[in-house]
Amino acid sequence: MSASPSPPRRPQRRAASSRPASYDESLLDVELQAYLGDAPSRRIRRLRRLSAEERQRETEKEALIALSVGFPIDELLPEERPLLPGPVADAPNDYIVVRNHILASWRADPAAPLPRARVLETVAATYDHLVVAAHGFLAREGHINFGVSTAFPAAAPPDVAPQGGPAASVLVVGAGLAGLAAARQLLRFGLRVLVLEGRARPGGRVYTTRLGGDKAAVELGGSVITGIHANPLGVLARQLGIPLHKVRDRCPLYYPDGRTVETRLDRSIDLVFNTLLDHATRLRESLSQAAERISLGEAIEKLRRLYHVARTEEERMILDWHFANLEFSNAGCLSELSLAHWDQDDPYEMGGDHCFLAGGNSRLVHALCDGVPVLYEKTVKRIEHGVDGVSVTVEGGQAFQADMALCTIPLGVLKSGSVVFDPELPEEKLGAIQRLGFGLLNKVAMVFPHVFWDEEIDTFGCLNKDSSKRGEFFLFYSYHTVSGGAVLIALVAGEAALDFEKVDPVVALHRVLGILREDYDCDISYKKNLQVSHDSFADIMGTIIAHRWPHGIYGPKGVTVPDPIQSVCTRWGNDPFCSGSYSHIRVGSSGADYDILAESINERVFFAGEATNRAYPATMHGALLSGLREASKILCAAESRADTDHKKYSLQKSLRPPNGALEDLFVEPDLAFGRFSFVFSSVTPDDPEAPGLARISLDKRLLLPLKNHELKEDQKDQAPAAQKVDRETFYLYATISREQADRLRHSSDDDKSRLELLCKDLSVKLMGYNCTCDEGSDLILGILSARKARKRLQRPKT
């Protein structure tokens, strides 16, 4: 259940750009590819011949790339410091250079994994320990090697498969961007995962439907990728090869009578708007703690009156439009936003253009779903947690148990109390849920037979004479460039979004058409798409005609606005699975409440979603990043718990075999050749899958230089005792299957080649006597039991 996106906290409409309207996000990394090269070998060759000055330039470029991804240029992230030794953490410059190099290298080609071995090839050997630390941190935290390309399936790679027992299990509540990102990452970590989703579809508040005969992709929820630089959604788009369309800057405004707001006045009021926000910032600094109790709306209104700005009706309407745009950005009324903290996430804002995804954001959602086990129409009603794990009960009484749970339930649902936690959530977390705001943004989406508006723009705005309705259809998004149809979406924000939830869809549609047309004279044949009765439709039409608009945007210009083929009105506030659109900082709240909401409970219940991301709240990428964040925390908890359980139960679970048992097993091995002998834990030792133990006989002379150890025949009896010790035999052991043993037997007649095959190709770990008795105790006891069973079967029947 992920978040609807929003524009920056202080959206500005700039002059039209000369850059092309459509582009592929991979073009942003052309410069990266130019200096990193197309292949690792080319990178290595370039590093070897770079001058000190060239290498410094590359270091600076990589630092800028790391900065765009959200890393400080010359500092450690707080979560990095505990992972480093004291001396490195105190003087981290070399580590930071290595970290930035890894980030830049993967961003150059995010469709393929960046293994640690490849990084080691490009960095001097003296920094190998820094590569290990940086690569491990970046991969674990989801900064590299994540995504939806074929190189990153929702399954654990062979090298991270769980060892020694079943992996930890995790229940993920919600199949939005946060839940799916976390589930996919956890599966790659080797954990067992199941996602429970209340809806009949994935995506949560990211919802792409198809209208107009299933031809046009229409975004009813999160729609805009806000800032493409370093945005993980841009990475997913690149991995899938999906082009992005830059939302063009030009956004003309229209008066209610259809006249275009002149550029000079538009820019003048835009400056007034931003100046008011600047003064509001200075006001809160002077008020200090008193600003915690004041809303942004109250402060701006007092400043507006103080400076006597926007005094004419036209100026007031334009300023109201900017206020509505700000309410859209925050999914909340200005009267609710905290003066002290409403823009606390501005420093983290993603840079770059805002973009539409061709074909709709559902393409990302379905890619994230690939390979992830999801149960739909499982509405979670209760989450219980304790020392033994968690139990999640869904509507109808069905219960699911696991070691841990990840809750991605939207803030609006947490506020409603429809999901019960047992034990109850901590008071601090309940307080954060109550304090944070969760507002509304609604839409009227329409598919027309053809594009009748200006095809060279992606947005246009409409002013309203009534300040209380300033957010009603104040902004239109055109999706004809990416949707596959003539799609136009009208936005409803602020107080108007609350009222919109109660408006009949037919009335809402005709209000929109009234803004576009000269009047409401339109064909009522498309009422069938709105599913209302003939009588109610006639009543509604009577109400509409009685309150018709005097003019419209396109009608007075002689443009014919056709009836839409199909339309949809959203009701996110009435949706029981979200109860709103996205979060904001309300009066009395602060950014710290996002952190509190993200805190786990006893490392059993974890929380993700846009409302748990202090840096990127109210955005789609914020939801996705929170899922990656929690996947790392869950993995840490699982590993910590596994270590604790191993120490706690090692004696009970692994009884040490009797003294001499290991030696006795190899008195009569099941298979022997050269220096290798084998015993297997199976009644039928020829079973290729039978587990067993291998013993390799070695003597110290094999491991020492030959000089001084090749004695003549007549000198053997006179050799010193120390030289005789050199010829002592000793044993190494390994766990192995019968199939692997047969492969060794047939691979070569040379024991050294066999040993190399065992260690390198089969990746078998060699152990000494004590370690084998400890770690292989269960296997030794199993072999003893199998031996006894074989002897019983071999006894003659009496």
TrEMBL record:
Residues 56-155 form the SWIRM domain. Gene3D superfamilies: 3.90.660.10, FAD/NAD(P)-binding domain (3.50.50.60), Winged helix-like DNA-binding domain superfamily/Winged helix DNA-binding domain (1.10.10.10). InterPro entries: Amino_oxidase (IPR002937), FAD/NAD-bd_sf (IPR036188), Flavin_monoamine_oxidase (IPR050281), Homeodomain-like_sf (IPR009057), SWIRM (IPR007526), WH-like_DNA-bd_sf (IPR036388). The keyword Glycoprotein does not apply. It holds the Pfam family Amino_oxidase. Keywords: Chromatin regulator. GO terms for molecular function: flavin adenine dinucleotide binding; oxidoreductase activity. Coiled coil: none annotated. SUPFAM superfamilies: FAD-linked reductases, C-terminal domain (SSF54373), FAD/NAD(P)-binding domain (SSF51905), Homeodomain-like (SSF46689). It comes from the Eukaryota. GO terms for biological process: chromatin organization. The keyword Transmembrane does not apply. Residues 1-24 are annotated as: Disordered. PANTHER family: FLAVIN MONOAMINE OXIDASE, LYSINE-SPECIFIC HISTONE DEMETHYLASE 1 HOMOLOG 2. Belongs to the flavin monoamine oxidase family. This is SWIRM domain-containing protein.
